[in-house]
Amino acid sequence: MQFIKKFSPQLVVESPGRINLIGEHTDYNLGYVLPTAIKKKITLKFAKNGSDSKCEVYSYDLKRGVSFDLDNFTKSDVGWENYIFGVIHEISKKSDKLKGFNCTIESYMPTGSGISSSAALECGFAYGLNELFNLGLNNREIVELTHHSEHNYVGTKCGIMDQFASVMSKEGHVILLDCRSLEHTYIPMTIAPYKLVLLNTNVSHNLVTSEYNTRSEECEQGVAIIKTEFPEVVSLRDVTETMLQACKPLMDAVIYKRCEYVLEENNRVLEAVEALKENDLRRLGQLMYKTHKGLRYDYEVSCVELDFLVDFSKQFDAVLGARVMGGGFGGCTINLVHEDTVDTFIEEASAAYFKEFNIKLTAFEALPSEGTSIIYP
Ligand code: GLA
Predict the structure, then answer these.
(1) pLDDT tens across 160-193, in order?
(2) Any idea what the Cα angle at residue 110 is, between residues 104 and 116, rounded to 5°?
(3) In terms of Cα–Cα distance, which of 23, 6, 12, 11 is closest to 291?
(4) How far, in Å, is the centroid of ligand 1 from the Cα of 134?
(5) Annotated domain spans of the chain
(6) Which helix (H) or strand (E) holds 208?
(7) Which residues surround ligand 1 with Cβ inside 6 Å?
(8) Which of 77, 176, 207, 295 could form a disulfide with 211 if both were Cys (CB 3.0 to 4.6 A apart)?
(9) What topology is assigned to 11-189+370-376 in CATH?
(10) In terms of pTM, does the model score above 0.70?
(11) For residues 330 and 333, what is the distance between their CA atoms, to the nearest angstrom?
């Protein structure tokens, strides 16, 4: 990667990770989510290199680069390269304007911690290429294209939440996103004197992708069964509690509890929005605890480290709610904590966590921030 030594970028893009206040595993079931981008970002620098199709991308954090030809690349065995190739593959379906370029990536966020560094990378990369080569894609197209890239190239059958939050967020707001219609509303995130604190377990169990895809398939199986009685149903979003109860005898117990969780979680998102609007943070916190319970026992995507931290938080009156955030099996808990107790909570949780698992916790405050943006020129 000789180019780095004399690299002078023509374009610099910042692309954020995201949190999700509530609405977990609902996006690929076309339900509701309540995410926002945060001030943990990836910086991508781009320049055209004058060639027709030769490209080089270098990651400072991984200390690795990849060289490829736009007209001739295939899926890679190296995970992060597929985020790059996937985006190019999807762009090529829409435009033939890409030419040779160089790009560097600097990450200021932890990977594998449930704040979606992968969406930050995909979205920042697509956003940058769109700008550099005047591709004329709008933000919605960038969201959809990066979402497809994750399905087609990376192989995670994820919903659209992460890409949507990374690109479309507004500072100081969460997005109530309807994943069926993509209609969205920005809700002001006024929670003072409370703060959102993320506790990163620093574990990422390798079940993440396989179990994630299994959950998605289980929900599809649920839909297929419900469809036999209610043919109008397309996704779990169309299913009412009455329909689910009517179909319960036809379902395996596991499939039933996955579906039940999703229906309940969609309702919790709408209730959380009411609570936020009424500044009823106690209610919001209770909803977060209920989500955790659902993810732990019904959806079964938690793990001992996450459960420990959520249980631990219950000792603090100043913590109104806590739950696993994102796909699960590791990563972060999201906690709603009174500002006066943030430091004590982090200190005590870190000590207890270390004593239990011999692993260091990392903690940070999540501040709702603007989506992907150009910071130069
Ligand atoms: C991961 C996926 C998202 C979403 C969450 C769970 O972050 O990428 O699409 O499904 O898990 O809510």
Answers:
(1) 999 999 999 999 999 999 999 999 999 999 999 9
(2) 85
(3) 23
(4) 30
(5) 11-189+370-376
(6) helix 208-229
(7) 24-25, 27-28, 116, 158-159, 161-162, 326-327
(8) 207
(9) Ribosomal Protein S5; domain 2 (3.30.230)
(10) yes
(11) 9
